[in-house]
């Protein structure tokens, strides 16, 4: 049977991404959904994703794995153009859920995208800007009746949270936007040069996630006012703290002991003891279920929500600031060199 909807997930090679793939394969009707999973490098084995797709449940699912480097805007444009062509021709169905999952946390180092791709801070480009551009380009391929854009958030975006506050020791660091997003985009804000500890990398990650949180509200507002796209909605989901590859650039102790053993073990124990855990520590499987519920459940169709797992939550005060949201949107349009005709969104600039 030909599927009637597409699900597109970025960062499918990671822990949460592969758990989402497993959830789609095992729990969603194969006759309805065609899945597109993107990874930065398709030549790598991506064993967790392969296992999710080759399981007894997933072996019959309709899916494909495509290459997407979110830090290279040319790669984003190429993937979007290909998907748009295929949807327009009827080769694949419209996108029912676009899940912006890919993430990068550099910790004690800092890198930049190539000059040809703007020379942006890698954390900013990979977490936020590439996703922003991908979404704007793919709007023409979204299901016009019930399409949904799911933004994977993080508590790192909110310095007011007690467990996060230790990474922001000075008051000036607790506000990300000071008149322009340029310091975030170019990596001069909380740079590794100024602070070579892992805290600077965590803060840059938090700032990028704050921009994504802003995108939830700003895009929702623009979609709601669009005559052709008003039924497409956005929603943010904080998946909690999980043991995943997001810490692959951290030191051995954090990577192996803290995340690989302590967090992974505690999250599994919590899942066994409490059948529906929504605490700070979660398994990738629990978070994948929450993400797909946010992507497909009718109760979230109004859009503009920000969830903590399966529960309605709230984003930071700065992320809700309408003036700063509009400013970051305008800066993003400039960074991505978005032009008339690139996106279906009427109010795109």
TrEMBL record:
<keyword id="KW-0472">Membrane</keyword>
<dbReference type="InterPro" id="IPR002347">
    <property type="entry name" value="SDR_fam"/>
</dbReference>
<protein>
    <submittedName>
        <fullName>NAD(P)-binding protein</fullName>
    </submittedName>
</protein>
<keyword id="KW-0812">Transmembrane</keyword>
<keyword id="KW-1133">Transmembrane helix</keyword>
<keyword id="KW-0560">Oxidoreductase</keyword>
<dbReference type="Pfam" id="PF00106">
    <property type="entry name" value="adh_short"/>
</dbReference>
<feature type="transmembrane region" description="Helical">
    <location>
        <begin position="252"/>
        <end position="274"/>
    </location>
</feature>
<dbReference type="InterPro" id="IPR036291">
    <property type="entry name" value="NAD(P)-bd_dom_sf"/>
</dbReference>
<comment type="similarity">
    <text>Belongs to the short-chain dehydrogenases/reductases (SDR) family.</text>
</comment>
<dbReference type="GO" id="GO:0016491">
    <property type="term" value="F:oxidoreductase activity"/>
</dbReference>
């Amino acid at each position: 049977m030909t599927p009637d909807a597409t699900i597109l997930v970025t960062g499918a090679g990671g822990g949460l991404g592969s758990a989402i793939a497993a959830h789609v394969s095992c729990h969603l009707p194969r006759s309805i959904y065609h899945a597109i999973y993107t990874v930065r490098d398709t030549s790598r084995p991506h064993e967790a994703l392969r296992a999710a797709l080759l399981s007894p449940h997933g072996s019959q699912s309709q899916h494909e794995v495509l290459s997407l480097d979110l830090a290279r805007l040319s790669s984003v444009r190429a993937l979007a153009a290909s998907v748009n062509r295929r949807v327009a021709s009827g080769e694949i169905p419209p996108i029912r859920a676009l899940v912006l999952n890919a993430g990068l946390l550099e910790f004690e180092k800092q890198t930049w995208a190539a000059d040809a791709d703007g020379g942006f801070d890698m954390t900013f480009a990979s977490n936020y800007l590439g996703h922003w551009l991908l979404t704007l380009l793919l709007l023409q391929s979204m299901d016009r009746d019930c399409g949904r854009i799911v933004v994977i958030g993080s508590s790192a975006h909110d310095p007011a949270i007690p467990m996060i506050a230790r990474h922001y020791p000075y008051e000036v660091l607790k506000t990300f936007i000071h008149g322009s997003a340029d310091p975030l985009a170019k990596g001069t804000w909380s740079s590794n040069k100024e602070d070579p500890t892992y805290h600077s990398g965590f803060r840059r990650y938090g700032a990028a996630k704050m921009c994504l949180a802003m995108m939830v509200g700003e895009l929702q507002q623009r979609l709601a006012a669009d005559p052709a796209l008003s039924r497409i909605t956005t929603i943010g989901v904080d998946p909690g703290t999980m043991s995943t590859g997001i810490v692959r650039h951290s030191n051995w102790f954090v990577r192996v002991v803290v995340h690989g053993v302590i967090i992974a073990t505690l999250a599994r124990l919590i899942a066994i003891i409490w059948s529906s855990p929504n605490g700070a520590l979660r398994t990738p499987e629990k978070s994948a279920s929450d993400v797909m519920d946010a992507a497909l459940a009718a109760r979230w169709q109004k859009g503009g929500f920000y969830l903590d797992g399966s529960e309605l939550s709230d984003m930071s005060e700065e992320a809700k600031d309408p003036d700063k949201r509009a400013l970051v949107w305008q800066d993003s349009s400039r960074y991505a060199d978005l032009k008339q005709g690139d996106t279906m969104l009427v109010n795109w600039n």
